Structure formats: structure tokens, C-alpha cells
Amino acid sequence: MIRRLLQAIPAIVGVTLVVFLLIHATGDPALIFLGHDATPERIALFNKAYGLDKPLYVQYGLFLFHVIQGDFGTSIIQGRPVIEVILNYLPRTVILALVSTTIGLLVGMTAGIIAGWKRNSIFDYLLMLGSVLGQSAAQFWLGLMLMLVFAVKLGWLPTSGTGSGLVSIKYLILPVLTLTPWFLALTARLVRSGMLEVMRQDYIRTAYAKGLSQWLVITRHAFRNALIPLVTMTGLNLAVLVGGAVIVEILFAWPGIGFLAYMSVLHRDYPVVLGVVTMVAVVFITVNILVDIILAYIDPRIRLTGGKAQ
User: Fold this and answer.
1) Which of 131, 185, 304, 308 is most open to solvent, judged by the fewest CB atoms within 10 Å of its CB?
2) 3-state class of 309 per DSSP?
């Protein structure tokens, strides 16, 4: 784990460096923010205020130095510390990610287990058809269709926002329904294929020979060993959603990390963009390490020794 954490450092540095260079390649931040009719004095003051009057390598070095201290700079648009801005938007993205992933996981696992158990049944065929449709439907199209039916035509649900407080349930329904189908379909397919492969193994036949019930064999022996690819995919899906479900958040005007990143890019709020990218990189690395630990617990044959699975 220590080795994995040390490997994360160059990954974060590499990601932030690439984004830092790309952002500055889009043009002079002062001219973009102040306009081309800005006076030289205003441009000079702007550059000095945000440290843009220094060479690029100095700017990036100062950025890393401050990040280590938990300081991501100040938002150009909002005039507040970047970390404060991110923490203001992050909770809504986390709620959206957790709810969508949990529903997709629970429904998908149940459907996958039954389909693997009842192979070549009507339920199995319907599940495969539904999985293809769930993974094929573009999220922006699905979101628009849901909005058209349930918000515009029926008037049951709001089209955008989060309601009063942190999140109101009725505002959460459409974004969740838009995000969930892809992961639900993938989960069902992974569990089904894993169950079909595991059910052919010798230890499953041994379990049946011992007189164990079919349900016990499936839940205690077969399903646990079919979990490995599912755990990996769940971790990646959760990391992606926490990093910002950009299309869905923009579509439903959901004030989360994806929406914040999009608006920051549009308004050239460079400190916020760099802060969001750094946060997303840390989330991905943390989730990957947690997935490794969970896999080692699920499958005793996996041992993280010397950085290699034994």
C-alpha cells in the first residue's frame, strides 16, 4: 500500500502538469477574462494578483507547493478559495454518485444472479436485451426523453436544480434514472457471465454433493467468486461519477463537480479547473487502492506482496 501511494505522486503531478499547460495554451488568461480592450495597467494588476506574471515553470512550482499545504488558490470568478468552492459543489455529486451506483449494483446483481441461475430462460433473454439497450442508450438522449415525459408532458418531476436544502428527492429522481441504466446493465452482464463460469467449477459440484441447497451454493460459493470483476468495475464507476457526471449535471443544471468544471472552463477560471482535476486524480487513485484491498479480502488467493498478486 505504501508503494502504491508513492506511485500516486507522479501520476497526480503528471495529470496536473498536462492540464496546466493545456489551460495556458488556450490564450492569455488576463485578455480572456478582462477582454481585449483592457488597459495594460489592468492586465498587469490582474497578472500580479494571480501570479500570472511569473514564468510558467515558476507558476506550476508554486501551485504544487501550495497544494501540498491544502491551498488551491482563489477562484477568479467567485473570489473565494478554490477548496471552499469545490467542497460546496462536491456533496451533491457524491449523493448522485452513491445513489446511482447503489441502485445499479443492487438491481443489477439480483438480475444477474437470477439470469445465471435460470440460463436460457425467458428472464435471461429479456435481461440480455435490456442490458444491450441500457448500455447503448446515450445519457444525453435518455435524460432528454425522461425530462420530456416526466417533466414536460406529465409534470410530475422538475427539470433542473436540486430543490431546497442540499438535495430534494424529487429533484434527484431524473438524474439518477439517467445515470443508472448503463451501470445496471453492465453489472447484470458481469454477474451473469461470472455466475455461468463459476457454476462449472469442481468446488460447486462438490458443494452440491455435500447436500447444500441451491440457494446456499449460489450465494455463499458461486456469487462470491464472481464478484472480482464487479468490484473493480464498481470502483471505477463510482470514481468516474464522483469525478463529475458532466453530461447529466449540465443537462439537469445539477450543481456538482462536473457542472463546476464545465462552467470553470467556459469562464477560464484556471485555479478552479486545476483544483477539480487534482481532486479527481486523488479520487481515482484512492478508489483503485481500496478496490485492491477489497479484492484481496474477497479472494484469499490474492495477496498484495511486493506489488504483485500472488
Assistant:
1) 308
2) strand
In a domain, 113, yes or no: yes
Instruction: Report yes or no on 146 lying in a domain.
Output: yes
Residues 6+ apart with CB under 8 A from 255: 89, 92, 162, 249
- Say what the pLDDT of residue 256 is: 87
Q: Is 34 exposed, middle or buried (0-12, 13-18, 19+ CB in 10 A)?
A: middle
Q: How far apart are CA 282 and CA 278, in angstroms?
A: 6
Give this prediction's pTM.
0.77
- What is the C-alpha radius of gyration for the chain, rounded to an integer number of angstroms? 24
Least Cα distance to 176 among 261, 110, 97, 262 occurs for 97
CATH at 230 = 1.10.3720.10
Q: Is the pLDDT of residue 309 over 70?
A: no
3-state secondary structure of 55: coil
* Residue 245 belongs to domain spanning: 92-257
pLDDT tens track for 103-135: 988 888 888 878 877 777 888 888 888 888 887
Q: What is the tally of structural domains in the chain?
A: 1
Judge whether 230 lies within some domain: yes
Cα angle 255, 257, 258; round to 5: 90
- Does 211 reside within a domain? yes
